[in-house]
Amino acid sequence: MKHILLFFILSIAFMGCEEIIDWEVDSDEIRLVVEGRITNEMKVHQIKLTETADYFDPQEPKPVRAAVVRVFDGNKTIEFKENSPGIYESAPFAGEVGRTYDLSITLAAPLANETSFAATSTLLKPASLDSLSAINKVDEEESDDGFQFFYTDLRFWGTGNLSEENSYLLEVYINGLLETDAIEEAAVFKDEFVSEEFEGFPFAPFTSLIANDGDSIALVIHSVENGFADFHEQLLLESEPRDPFGLSSPPANVSTNISGGALGYFYVSAVDTVRTIARDDF
User: Fold this and answer.
1) What mean pLDDT is reported for the chain?
2) Cα 206 to the chain's mean position, in Å?
C-alpha cells in the first residue's frame, strides 16, 4: 500500500487546524480529498478540495481547481465559487435544522477515473448550553520533584438531544483562538454515552488545555450525525504511530460519506456556544 498525506483543516472544515495524517490507502491512484461543513450560523461556508500526495512529497497537497461545487437543501441549490485555489465558498447563509443537504462535486478532470462525487448530511437539532466552568488547577499526581503540572478543568452544563441518534463535537477557544487544533485534542462523543442533561460534564482530554487566570474561554458544541463520530474515531487510529518494523496489523481505510472514492467527510451541524472566564484554584 502507498502512504498518502492528508491535510485536514478542522475549523471550518472540521476544527480549524492543519493536521498532517500519514494515511495508508489501498490504491496508488491520486484521489480527491473533500473537507467541509455547513452549520446553522449565518456566514460564508467553505468546502476545500485537494489531491492526495505521496508520503515523501514535501509540498502541500495540490488544490483541485475549476470544479463545480453545489449543495442542494431540498428547496434550492447553493453555488460554491472558487475564491482561492481549491477553496470554494458560498454566499452567506444559515443552515436550517431538519434539512438534509446534498453535496455534489464535478471535476474538470478525473481523479482515479472519477469526475462526480456526492455526499449527504442532515442538520440535527442543536444541544443547549447553559453555563461553563474553567478552573485552573495543579495535578498533584503528575507534579513531581518541585515541578508543578497545571491544567484547566473545563466543565459545562446544558441539555443534549436524545430524541435523535446524534453525536457531539466540542471546540474550545481561549481568548478567541481555537485551542483544540489537532485531531487528538478534539472531543467527539455519541449520545449513547451521556444522559440528556450535561451536569458538570468534563471536556476531554482536559489536560491538553492550559489557561491563565482571567482568560476568556468559549466552548462550542456541534450536534452532528453519528457517522462523523465514527470517522473521527477511525482517523484517530490512523494517525497513531505505527510499528516501524511492520509488525502491527494493517489499518483499514477510514470511512467516508462521500461517493466516488473520495477521502474526507462532509457534514452539517447545529451549534451552541457558552463562555466564561478562567480562574486559578491554587
Assistant:
1) 83
2) 18
